[in-house]
Amino acid sequence: MMNAMRLLLLAAILSLTACGFHLRGSNIQDVTFAFKSLYLKVPAETPFVTDLRRALKTNKITLAQTADQADLVLEIVSEQSIKQIMSLSGTGRVQEYQLFYRISLRAYDNKQTNWLPADDISLSRIFPYDDTQVLAKQQEEATLYKDMRSDAVGQTIRRLLRAKPQLETQ
Q1: Per residue, what are the HEC states of 21-53?
Q2: Which of 32, 80, 88, 169 is surrounded by the fewest CB atoms within 10 Å?
Q3: Neighbours of 150 (CB within 10 A)
Q4: Assembly and interactions (predicted)?
Q5: pLDDT tens digits along 82-129
Q6: DSSP state, 80?
């Protein structure tokens, strides 16, 4: 009985993929940016910047060598990782941390017209801690920061996707 259900489920999935069905937004070729080339102005080469460059190349954005050659300049103003104690046990040991990851960015063109006004991407995670498992908790912390960095890259790409010249209001 279980094999028949699995076979039926497999047939349904194959028929959906064979007919060309895909979720809306899952096809990268449907995505078009309002610019063709981008200069990435960063204070330092960090893992976030590396991941962002990779994501931009995946989305077929040409990365210019200078700001003059680019349609748009994306400036990563700052990147911060902060770890704060959230709770302590009765003996004074840390039970939970709260991890923060924040990216400040803005985008503008050669005429200094804002495409993305200065803004922050702020993410946080709660990190339960046990000092009897130090190595495992260090890896878990690194994984949480990597997850937040990946989320920040995705949010940056989505913001660039809807970026357009902002009209100055007086």
Answers
A1: CCCCCCCHHHCCCCCCEEEEECCCCCHHHHHHH
A2: 169
A3: 14
A4: Component of the lipopolysaccharide transport and assembly complex. Interacts with LptD.
A5: 999 999 999 999 999 999 999 999 999 988 899 999 999 999 999 999
A6: E
